[in-house]
Write a structure and sequence with these properties.
By secondary structure, the chain is an alpha/beta fold. The protein contains nine helices and 18 strands. It has an eight-stranded parallel β-sheet with strand order 3-18-17-12-11-8-7-4. It has a four-stranded antiparallel β-sheet with strand order 5-6-16-13, with no helix packed on it.
């Protein structure tokens, strides 16, 4: 049985729904020695800022029984360095590129976005609204609808490709933030970023991360991510969603699609197995054929809700 795995994300159409999660795939070249990264739906690159960043001091990553904690601190070469070195390599591969951008102010987001305008191979911009917000003393944009909307408005005015707002689940009502981001002009949403966590070494009595707090990723956060995708899709069923959070198996991919995602990003699994995204794409095709699913669109939001007595 031939299956159609094309993913429709509004104005952006991908050959398949498997993409990479920002920060978990390096620049793409590091993984390309294992398989052709152009087989993926898109490569979502690590968040790029206006100026280069060295990142936070080590230790910056730690395993926990519930997932991985990280506090990298947006280490990156800056937009000009990335455009000069990394984008030409991705353009040469012919893989669609979704550029994750970050900033400490609305103006910084807008300037990074402006430098991406008209760049060949860049098919979308993912706005990382969960980075530290200096203007708001350590809070993040995505914790509040209004500043999130301000960033999206500025970015959508600066670029000529679809824009996706990346939100955090560390809020009381993600639907209100999601609606503000869409109303501000975003094409779609990326759900979810890592969850804020902390681990302590009981022998040294010190936090395991130098930054004390970090982002928790991996299978432990998947139910939270699926819940957020489901809630936002129920509220805004026409809005494209890139679902992510602990994806490791084909069943995980299908779960996100059933909840309402249009595409699925693979993150932490890449660290344990560089073939993870590649194998999930092949496995998804097999799963669909085995279950008589001809088109990916048949799965999106197709969760069957339990019957409720009146």
């Amino acid at each position: 049985m031939t299956v159609d795995v094309r993913a429709d994300l509004g104005a952006l159409s991908l050959d398949n729904p498997i993409v990479t999660a920002s920060g978990c795939f390096a620049s793409g070249a590091e993984i390309d020695r294992f398989y052709d990264v152009a087989t993926l739906g898109a490569v979502v690159v690590k968040s790029i800022t206006l100026e280069p960043r060295e990142g936070l001091p080590p230790p910056r990553m730690a395993e926990t029984p519930s997932g991985m904690l990280n506090a990298i601190g947006l280490q990156n070469p800056g937009i000009d360095g990335w455009l000069a070195k990394d984008l030409p390599w991705l353009q040469g591969k012919g893989v669609p590129v979704i550029v994750s951008i970050a900033g400490t102010s609305v103006d910084e987001f807008a300037e990074v976005a402006r430098r991406l305008r008209g760049r060949a191979g860049v098919v979308g911009v993912e706005v990382n609204l969960s980075c530290p917000n200096v203007d708001h003393r350590g809070l993040v944009f995505a914790c509040h609808p209004e500043p999130s909307a301000d960033v999206i408005t500025a970015v959508t005015r600066a670029v000529d490709v679809p824009v996706f707002g990346k939100l955090t689940a560390d809020v009381t009502d993600i639907v209100s933030v999601a609606r503000a981001v869409i109303d501000a002009g975003a094409t779609g949403l990326s759900l979810i970023n890592t969850l804020l966590g902390m681990a302590i070494d009981v022998e040294s009595r010190r936090p395991t991360l130098a930054n004390v707090l970090g982002g928790l990723s991996g299978p432990a956060i998947r139910p939270v991510a699926v819940r957020n995708v489901f809630q936002v899709h129920q509220a805004m069923p026409d809005i494209p969603i890139i679902g992510m959070g602990g994806v490791r198996t084909v069943r995980d991919v299908v779960e996100f699609l059933l909840a309402g995602a249009s595409a699925v990003a693979v993150g932490t699994a890449n660290f344990a197995d560089p073939f993870a995204a590649h194998d999930l794409l092949a496995g998804l095709r097999t799963w669909m054929a085995d279950h008589g699913v001809a088109k990916l669109s048949e799965l999106r939001g197709a969760v069957q809700m339990p019957d409720r007595e009146a």
